[in-house]
Amino acid sequence: MASSFNSFLFFLAILVSTSYAQNGLVLPIRKDTNTLQYYTSIEMGSNRATVNAVINLGAQFLWFDCDDYTSSTYAPIPCDSKKCEIAKGIGCVGCNMPPRPGCTNNTCGASPYNPFQDVLVSQGFAEDTLYSKDRVEVPQFPFSCMNTRFLEGLASGTNGMLGLARTEISLHKQVANKLNLPDKFSLCLPSSGLGKLYIGGGSSSKSDVTKSLITTPLIINPVSTAPAYTVGDPSDEYFINVQSIRVQGEPLSVKSSYFTIDKDGVGGTKISTINNFTAVHSSIYKPLARAFVKAASDMKIKSVDAVAPFRACFSSSTISTASTGPSVPTIELVLPGNDVSWKIYGANSMFPVNKNVMCLAFVDGGSSPRTSIVIGAYQLEDNLLEFDLVSSQLLFSSSLLLQNKTCSRL
């Protein structure tokens, strides 16, 4: 009788786990106010070690500090294996110390990258079970270890980086493959409170916001933008086809060539969760700042001295407040289609540097950046973004404040 009861409980546990898995993973997103980085929490391995990982749309895989990591289900990925090929492992690494996570022989070579240190480290790929707080588990999840000394620059309390790039070993791809779900994920970065990262099924279908999302194609940069790559590899970051920019409805006078990607992979527009603020080519930034200052002046907003890294700053006392944040000129990223644009309102365009001054939260990316426009994380706050890799589309909301919502209230 006891045996039958235990079997029933086991069967019930499988049903519950499967039910959760069918909806994919839902991970919390927190904002670190010091670094302005955004991170989530997962658990790894048999001991369910907590990994607080900075979210990086451009990173190819998960890596975290393994110096104190122990797990009976940890397994290095061998060199010359099919899994190593899928991970695009580089060579073979070994270790002359006693075996432990992050130190094994005949292991598929990995190159975890810390963008805040701009350092690329030689490590090995491994796999272990990944668990989410909502009871979903992803077995044999590939990742790389990282040494503690290479965590510098990450938000306090974090110990890794979660890669969401367009790769076979990113979280969304692994969830899609192993849980038989569509390759989709949604990102909602919070200005405060908890945001959400939906993996495996897009955003919550219960939200009215999803019914009003705007769609634009995700495009492929033919040349990799990764810190290390093989010649001929396309970029696995997320690019969209911004064709022009408008300020308060007026288009900027900028050469169209700055908005396109050339044969060497230079130019275009990508989305980043690592850049704090949107960085634009100098030849775009200068007319953008001039147009914004002029339109602000027409609204009786007073300019003040610049505060680095910003160039266009204003007296807070001359700026009124609207439902979408500070009442300032609207910036539009114009996309293909009939009057399709990503509208950026005051909550995403103005950064309060102190109680008296707000600045235009765009920075000059220089005269020869690899990418002409890098949409930064501050511009993504309280915007719902759904990356549909099945149809290669980005679905976006613009500011949720327009609908009296935020990422923490979805």
What attributes characterize this protein structure?
four-stranded antiparallel sheet; 410 residues; 13% helix; six-stranded mixed barrel; mainly beta; Cathepsin D, subunit A, domain 1; 5 helices; secreted; disordered N terminus
Compose a concise summary of this entry.
By secondary structure, the protein is mostly beta strands.
Notes on the protein architecture:
With 410 residues, the protein is mainly beta. It folds into two domains: 24-181, Acid Proteases (Cathepsin D, subunit A, domain 1, Beta Barrel); 208-409, Cathepsin D, subunit A, domain 1 (Beta Barrel). Helices cover 13% and strands 34% of the residues. The strands form five sheets. A six-stranded mixed β-barrel has the order 2-3-12-4-11-10. It has a four-stranded antiparallel sheet with strand order 18-17-25-26. The protein is globular, with a radius of gyration of 22 Å. The model is unreliable at 1-20 (pLDDT under 50).
Note the quaternary state here.
single chain
Largest sheet: 6 strands, mixed, barrel
The tally of beta strands, per DSSP, is 32
- What CATH calls the topology of the largest domain is Cathepsin D, subunit A, domain 1
* CATH homology superfamily of the largest domain: Acid Proteases
Structural class by sheet pairing and helices: mainly beta
What do the pLDDT scores average to?
A: 93
Radius of gyration: 22 Å
Query: Which segments are poorly predicted (pLDDT under 50) over 5 or more consecutive residues?
Result: 1-20
User: Helical region count?
Assistant: 5
Span between N and C termini? 46 Å
Name the strands of the widest sheet in spatial order.
2-3-12-4-11-10
Shape: globular
The first-level CATH class of the largest domain is given as Mainly Beta
Beta-strand fraction estimate: 25-35%
Number of domains: 2
For the record, the CATH architecture of the largest domain stands as Beta Barrel
The residue fraction in helices comes out at: 10-25%
Subcellular location: Secreted, Extracellular space
GO molecular function, one term: peptidase activity
GO cellular component, one term: extracellular region
Protein name: Eukaryotic aspartyl protease family protein
